[in-house]
Structure formats: C-alpha cells, structure tokens
Specification:
Associates with the 50S ribosomal subunit. By secondary structure, this protein is of the alpha/beta class. The chain has 13 helices and 18 strands.
Length: 437
C-alpha cells in the first residue's frame, strides 16, 4: 500500500490532521495498526484508494535543542525515504521557523511529491499574507488548512490520492509461494540471516519484483517449495545512511508484513526482546501473520545467566504471543538456521488450517460443561454455536446471547481453551462474538 507520511515540527497540528482525515467522510481509518508511543499507522482510504497514513506526531521536543532538531531531521529523512506522498505541516500562526526550514531543506533533496500545509488558518481569506510567507520554504504552494475545523482536507485528499502510484498488476510467477518477512531492529542480524539463507547450497534463489514500485522480493526454493522473502532489497544491500533509524526499519517492516504469511522476528540476543520488537511483533500479529521468534547471536551468550535473561525478556515482552515458536540461532555460524524452514512451514500450515464444525461443536459442549462462563446479575452468557468464518489466520465466530457481557479476559480464556484443544502453534487466531440474529 502506498504510504502518506505526515511530517513537521511538534505542535503544528499533525495529529489533529490525522484525526481529521480519519473522520472525514469516506476516509475510513480502519483499525489502527498498533499505535506506538511515537507514531501511529492508519489504514485509510479515500474514494476507494487505499493508503497507509503515518503519523509522526507524538514526538515531543526534547529539552536540548540539538537532540530536538536531530529527531525532526531523522523523522523527515526517514519519512521522505519511505513515503509516496509527504504532508509537510507548518503553523500559520507562528509563521516560518528555523525548524520548518530545516525540514524543508531535507524534503527538497528527496524529490517526493510534497504538500505544504499551512495549518491553523481558520479564515484563509483574511489570512492570505500569512500564507505567502511560506513560499520562502521553497517546497511549493502553501495550502491553507484547518485541521481543527476540517477546512481543506477533502480537496487535499483528492490531490493526494491522485499522486499515489498505481498498484501495478503483475503476473505472479509464484502464486503458491509463502510470503516471509524478516523483521526486527537494526543490527539484530536480519541481513546476516538473509545472506545465510540465500548462500545455502540447498537454496535456489531468484529475484522478482515486489508488488510495490521499489520492493524487490527474493524467491527461495527449498526442497521443491517456494518462499517469497518479502522486500529484501534493503536487507540484502544496506545502502542508505537511514538504515539505523528505527522508524525506517519499522515502516519497511510494516510494508513487508502486509504481504507476508509468516513474520520472522529477528531478536538480538545480546540485547533481548525490546519494546520495539514487541511493537513490531504486535503489528505482525494484527496484520494476521504467523510469527516465529529467532533469538539471533546466540553464539555470543557464554553464560547461563545471560541466556536466562534473554528468555526472560521473551516471556515478559511477548506475553501476547506465547504460541509463537522460539528458536535460538546464529546467523554468523549458521547454527540452527536450517531449522527455520520447518517452523515456517508449520506456522503457515496452522495459519491456513480449518477446524470442522463437529469438532467445534464438541469444543463448545466441553466448554459449557467444564468451563467458566460469565454471569452478570440475572444475565448469563450462553454460547449457541461456533463456526469457522475465515482462515489465514483462523477466524471463529461465536454466536452468543449477550455479546456485551464478553470481557477481554474471557476472550483470552476462550482462546486459551481453543489453543489447548486444537493446535494453533505459530499462528494468531481471531475470535468474534456476535449475537444470534
Ligand atoms: P540487520 O541490521 O538486522 O540487518 O543486522 P546485520 O545482519 O547487519 O548484523 C549486524 C551485526 O551483527 C553485524 O556486524 C553482524 O556480523 C553481526 N551478527 C549478525 N548475526 C550474528 C550472529 O548470529 N552472531 C554474531 N556473533 N554476530 C552476528
């Protein structure tokens, strides 16, 4: 999906704009794909054109000026690198600031379609002069908007979607290939792992164009099976100076996840599972990917204590994915790298699995008989029946008498019971509760 990034210094109204676009009729912001502290990612569509809106809004100015501008610079660079269209937001009331100029300078270098949005102009007719000031930034015609009131956002969206690249329809030579995304923080060892994989004598490798303009996928054939390693261009050849920016790797990982069946989360064992790993794993699961956790650089852990510490971070940070297999590897020595394939196959198979209605009914009977239920005053939750309504990942719809009685902990309870009954190792499952029509 094309990416529209919202950049600008703090407090100019980026988040308000994103929320505004979210609320503008037709632009549906589907469930937010994991809101991080610093950024949020939204699936939006306008007149049927889908795009991902990246809000870099939450970055708060740090006290030190230097660090502050460095963070703006990083954001702007990273956004420029990845985005198809950039929305550069400035504040019409404060006028042009030095920070705006810094951002503008960076954006000018990258030649991406950029809209200069002058925000907080609630009455553009009377505030023309304020608008003109912004021509000095040299990034095109300033457009007045009011993120708060919504003026100008419809026009803006029309122009934005007109500039989004066409999703080229290509013939997929390997329609049955499993999509595999290698995700994780910079330096975790993603490139090393990938190189090990393609360097293996057992792998037959070919490059193919990905579905988006600049993505290159690698098809790996192993024992007659095809795997599409998604968006490996950046992983194979570390080209840019932006590689170390977490944001960059995050956005790229996100794109890869979109097209993957299985996500391989590469964790640096000398660091353990970090908050960033946690976020990206969560995103992969939200997008319906199966998940395999690879504890890389295991060769560097000499002491038992260190190993335990890493496993402890897995337990603590990946509580939402206790079902994901965890493999200790070394991309450097090749230790256990060959084992990833069976884990990938297995997770993908579970993700595509179907459970027969009779087995589901048996499950429900057992749950009624031996399980807990929810009682609220006179009302008692009853599950009438359950049916599988989707795969990849397996999705089950339970028809119940009072869906509003459902609590998160009860959902988890039912999921755990299902996982204990059926084998869903490696895949997320989705449970929906509907009232019986
Ligand atoms: P990426 O940013 O995730 O692609 O990480 P790289 O593959 O570039 O690896 C970062 C650094 O870690 C490089 O210096 C690698 O040589 C090193 N590295 C990667 N995997 C391993 C491993 O399993 N063991 C050790 N000892 N070093 C590793």
């Amino acid at each position: 999906k094309p990416i529209v990034a919202v950049v600008g210094r703090p407090n100019v109204g980026k988040s308000t704009l994103v929320n505004r676009i979210a609320q503008t009729s037709d632009a549906i912001v589907h469930e937010s794909r994991g809101v991080t502290r610093d950024r949020s990612y939204h699936d939006a569509d306008w007149n049927g054109r889908e795009f991902t809106l990246v809000d870099t809004g939450g970055i708060e100015p740090l006290k030190s000026e230097d660090v502050f501008s460095a963070s703006i610079r990083d954001q702007a660079l990273a956004a420029a690198e990845e985005a198809d269209v950039i929305l550069f937001v400035v504040d019409g009331h404060t006028g042009v600031t030095e920070e705006d100029e810094t951002v503008a300078r960076l954006l000018k270098r990258v030649h991406k379609p950029t809209f200069l949005l002058v925000n907080k102009l609630d009455n553009p007719a009377r505030e023309q002069e304020r608008l003109w000031d912004f021509y000095s930034l040299g990034v095109g015609d300033p457009m007045p908007i009011s993120a708060h009131h919504g003026h100008g956002t419809g026009d803006l969206l029309d122009k934005v979607v007109a500039l989004l690249p066409d999703e080229t329809e290509e013939v997929d030579e390997f329609p049955d290939a499993l999509g595999v995304a290698i995700i994780g923080r910079p330096n975790a060892g993603k490139s090393s792992l990938f190189n090990k994989v393609i360097g293996s004598e057992r792998s037959i490798v070919s490059d193919v164009a990905g579905t988006t303009r600049d993505a290159i996928d690698t098809i790996v054939e192993r024992d007659g099976r095809h795997y599409r390693m998604v968006d490996t261009a950046g992983i194979r050849k570390k080209s840019t100076v932006y590689e170390n920016i977490e944001y960059y790797s995050m956005v790229r990982g996100l794109r890869a996840i979109d097209r993957a069946d299985v996500a391989l989360l590469v964790v640096d064992s000398t660091v353990g599972v970090t908050e960033q790993d946690q976020k990206v794993a969560n995103l992969a699961i939200e997008r319906g990917c199966a998940l395999v956790v690879l504890l890389n650089k295991w060769d560097l852990l000499k002491e038992e204590r260190e190993r335990e510490r890493v496993l402890e971070t897995v337990d603590r940070r990946l509580t939402f994915a206790t079902w994901a297999p965890v493999l200790r590897i070394s991309a450097l020595t090749g230790r256990s790298v060959e084992k990833i394939w069976s884990l990938i196959d297995d997770a993908a198979a579970k993700r595509a699995s179907k459970v027969s209605t009779s087995k589901l009914n048996q499950f429900l009977t057992d749950l009624r008989e031996f399980g807990h239920t929810i009682v609220d005053g006179k009302r008692r939750l009853r599950m009438h029946y359950v049916t599988q309504t989707g795969t990849k990942p397996p999705t089950f719809t339970f028809f119940v008498n009072h869906p509003d009685l459902l609590t998160d902990s009860y959902r988890r309870y039912v999921e755990n019971r299902m996982r204990a009954t059926f084998d869903f190792a490696g895949t997320p499952v989705r449970l929906r509760f509907r009232s019986k029509a």
